[in-house]
Design brief:
The protein has nine helices and five strands. The chain has helices spanning 13-24, 31-40, 44-55, 61-73, 90-102, 116-130, 133-136, 138-161, 174-184, and strands at residues 2-7, 26-30, 80-84, 107-113, 165-169. α2 crosses α3 (44-55). It binds adenosine monophosphate (AMP).
Amino acid sequence: MDLVFFGIQGSGKGTQAKRLAAEFGYDIFEAGGELRKIAASGSELGQTVKTYIDQGHLVPHEIIMQVVKEAVLTRPKTTKILFDGIPRDGAQMNDFNLIMKNAGRDFLCIHFLLDADAAIARILGRAKAESRADDANTEIITRRMNTFREKTMPVIQEYKKSGKVREVSAEGSVDGIYEELKKAL
Ligand code: AMP
């Protein structure tokens, strides 16, 4: 069974993903990370992607879905995938569901819960550690959080209706959250 991690920026889901992957052998697909790699490649596509990331806007649908589709199709069915940062809006959800269905892959969602103030404090800390421009500017952080609230929360609600979501509190220490995550699974 694959996993899909949801959580507001700064919820620490990326850190938890790495830990879970290391212990249980998941292959992580991190949407933001994949897009940052493309942005750094210097290609024409990369330059387009970069303008969206730098402004905190979602990268166009066709671009991200092509990356996801390729990631799913190139992995053997025996590989368990942990998706981080996809799907992020209703249109991505519809296509993601289809890609997964066609590949014969089932998934469970984890929603890491954290309030906005705590999330912002964590993101500003991460901006220093990873020197990410889109993490250092409060206006852009706010835009990304608004996108999460307005576009991604409805996706989580939709999956919740079909019983696919488990919630994990993302407050407290990395170790504490990890224990909660394992319990939820
Ligand atoms: P993240 O690392 O998840 O905070 O994502 C960083 C940036 O990558 C976002 O602000 C978007 O510009 C882009 N991005 C990440 N995931 C997606 C996605 N599923 N769809 C579109 N853009 C995305």
